[in-house]
Fold this protein.
Amino acid sequence: MSIIELRDASKNYHIGEIETRALDGVSLTVEAGEFTALVGPSGSGKTTMLQIIGCLDKPDRGLVLINGQDVTRLNANRRADLRREVIGFIFQFFALVPVLDAYENVELPLLLNGVNAKERRTRALEMLDAVGLSDRVHHRPDQLSGGQQQRVAIARALAPRPLMVLADEPTANLDTANGEQAMEIMKRLNEQTGTAFIFATHDPRVMSFARRTVKMLDGRIVENSVENGAGH
Amino acid sequence: MAWTKLWVIAYRDLIRNRRRTFFTLLAVALGLALLIVVNGFIAGVVEDSLQNGIRLQTGHVQLRAESYTDGKHSLQWADLLDQPEARTAQAAALPEVTAAGPLLWADAIMNTREDSVGLLLYGIDPASSLHTPIRDALVAGAFIEANDRSGIVMGKTLADNLGLKVGENVNLTVINASGQPEEALFVIRGLFASGVPIYDQSAIFMPLAKAQAFTQAGDRASAIMIMLTDQEDADAVAAALSSPGVQTLTWRDLNAYLLETMGTAMSFYVIIDAIIMLIVAVIVANTLLMAVFERIREMGILAALGMKRRQITQMMIFEAAIIALAGVVVGGLLGSLAVLYLTQNGFFYGDNAAVVGNMAVSAVLYARFEPVTFTWLAVWTLIIALLASLYPAWFAARLEPVDALHSS
């Protein structure tokens, strides 16, 4: 069974009198363990697509099935439950909780999922180790570099062992070295954990990590290609 | 989610903006401290005025002739009590009674070379412990004796206003029981300063026998004034002393005007309390709303991570609770210390107290420590602050994650 299925999903935004079609009858299927890039220029609908897949927003029309469940009919609390249980997020702006240290940020989704204290500690430390931040466990976000913050965000997204991680421009605020390092970590964790990664990007270096590329333009999918021999 | 983590996030969010949190906490603390001081002060003034009135003027129970009308100071025999000694003895025999004695009141005019002033003449039994407060308040000369035929004691403020001293003569005029003017010379034996301006400016005391003779009241009295060990026994004592043709009035009847005025004043102070609490609520709500606006994107992150609206609401309420609890503790302490200081040292109000209606307000106003009232004020401040957090909390919880994440 596909973990994500969009059927003819459309989404319009209204800014004053102006209506903008962000998604225009998009259909897409994503299987478990994929490492997929949504690519396209700004305004092509990548972020809207991620928000709809991530249950942060609802389409105006069409169906969105996550793990076989139609999420368009769920209320805010049920969508929050679904996000907590099966979806991890990585944002362009790192999006750590500034008052929590690296460990506490990674622990937070586990707490929200009701994981017991011992298990939380084990998993949070494991994930921080996996992203190479064992020595920054008790550093607050403002004591970490941009690359380190994004690695904490990766650890946080993966700590609850979600079905999928949605990453919106995960390297946009990183320099080349840190961007590559973040992508390598995501790719490695994708292979190790089997968690699907779907990331929106228009950075060609990031696209080169993807095994599948979905190209978007004006709210539509214009190309859907699988490159088995991804360069990294 | 563990509540402890929500508390931790709430606490750390508050210390992110220490200055704003400090001033909000200070507003809660000062608001409560002000409430405590105002309420402690009002309670002190009410109690002080009541006890002054009881001590100096009304006693706990009074016996009067049926036709005697309060405030008119009639000297007509029909309005006066006969057999005052026997009635005094009957009252004094009751176990609840600590002191009893006859009083004769008459409106009088004191004439000096330069001035004339209206005042209230008290004919008293100088030996009675009823008048210990005046005897103890003597600041010059001596107290009158029962057999003194020409001596009076008067308030020092009145004497100063008229330029009089101990040993000097003063002329007094009254309208006697027959309705005729009566005039006589008296010698100032002593001056008192009771600390209650309304008495110090307008009361003179002379022995009952002389007052009866001066006013032609025979052997009658305006009232028998009775003091009790416990003022709550007033009704029982009044019932025990009731007899045909005699009014028995308790301190509640005799101070009805004061109690009614204070009751009205208290409703006014409840409005002031409400206004202060409303200001505290607005400040708390404003601080939390600012905190929400600053952290809209963070709210979006927490929502994206799966935090429910209920949990976001709780987190905001916890922030308010921390500010409110700390503010209440600090404010309770500050207010209580201020009230304790005012119970010892008071606030000098001076002769202005004489113009506060007909109430026996002291020149120095003392607060009263009212722990139950203060606790309620603290609880209400806490509740109001928490209620004030509901709107910002609701606002934060209603944010759509997608909008919040894209907030700049």
